[in-house]
Amino acid sequence: MKMKKISCGKKEIILGQRTLIMGILNVTPDSFSDGGKYNNLDAAMKQAEKLIADGADIIDIGGESTRPGHTQITVEEEISRVVPIVEKISKELNTIISIDTYKHEVAKEAVKAGADIINDIWGLQYDKGEMAKFVKECNLPLIAMHNQNDEIYNKDIMLVLREFFEKTYKIADEYGIDRNKIILDPGLGFGKNSEQNIEVLSRLEELNDMGPILLGASKKRFIGKLLNDLPFDERVEGTVATTVIGIQKGVDIVRVHNVLENKRASLVADGIYRKRG
């Protein structure tokens, strides 16, 4: 696999050398897995330190739950949740920070506070070009996730994903965004039922020609279903299995809650599946 460097302002990420681990830090009261655990600054900072110590290359900070049935919050509320922790991590810890938001106003304030990557769960397709304008302006990497409002697919699901990402690239081209700074996320758990999530995971390699891939399967409902409906906190091993599958399929980044276990699994999987030199 070819190495690819992507600049994040003064920092950079290197794809293709090894699998990068993105640690999830939700500063929300209602996220499906860890809502309420880290929605004060001290607790969030301690968790960020733990994620880094466990092997996270990137910390992904989210201020609004995007679980099914979530309540949308105001831009102001989301900014008030994410900016203090982004700022503190940026100043005190040596890591790369991703801001998980689909709102350009939140992205702008988070980048001012020190965020290095924008993680947009609507892949530039939410706000009629406002996020695209900002991504062009800040010239930071973009993670573009596939999403839709229902689970109805009237054609092959991988074709739907490809068409979605082609639309993302078209928007990026219109606004002058460098395609080489876009990372694609197939959006497991978003607009897909369990069977559809499993199919996407089993066919991930079909997206490799479109760009670098991020896999975000951590503790998702389809894992619980495969484990006889185990609850969120008992899906760690299932998540590790998806990480290994993803690496075998060619993903570049895995986004996870439990960094240590997935980091160790990635080291073994990289040693087996990634071609050296």
Automatic annotation (TrEMBL):
A GO cellular component annotation in the UniProt record: cytosol
The reaction(s) this protein catalyses: (7,8-dihydropterin-6-yl)methyl diphosphate + 4-aminobenzoate = 7,8-dihydropteroate + diphosphate
InterPro entries: DHP_synth-like, DHP_synth_dom, Dihydropteroate_synth-like_sf, Pterin-binding_dom
Domain Pterin-binding residue range list: 19-267
Pathway(s) the chain acts in: Cofactor biosynthesis; tetrahydrofolate biosynthesis; 7,8-dihydrofolate from 2-amino-4-hydroxy-6-hydroxymethyl-7,8-dihydropteridine diphosphate and 4-aminobenzoate: step 1/2
Keyword Metal-binding: yes
Enzyme class: transferase
Keyword Translocase annotated: no
Keywords: Folate biosynthesis, Magnesium, Metal-binding, Transferase
GO annotation, biological process: folic acid biosynthetic process; tetrahydrofolate biosynthetic process
Entry GO MF terms: dihydropteroate synthase activity; metal ion binding
PROSITE patterns: DHPS_1, DHPS_2, PTERIN_BINDING
Pfam families, A to Z: Pterin_bind (PF00809)
Needed co-factor(s): Mg(2+)
EC number assigned by the record: 2.5.1.15
Family that this chain belongs to: Belongs to the DHPS family.
Protein purpose: Catalyzes the condensation of para-aminobenzoate (pABA) with 6-hydroxymethyl-7,8-dihydropterin diphosphate (DHPt-PP) to form 7,8-dihydropteroate (H2Pte), the immediate precursor of folate derivatives.
Protein name per the record: Dihydropteroate synthase
Source species: Fusobacterium pseudoperiodonticum
Upper classification of the organism: Bacteria, Fusobacteriati, Fusobacteriota, Fusobacteriia, Fusobacteriales
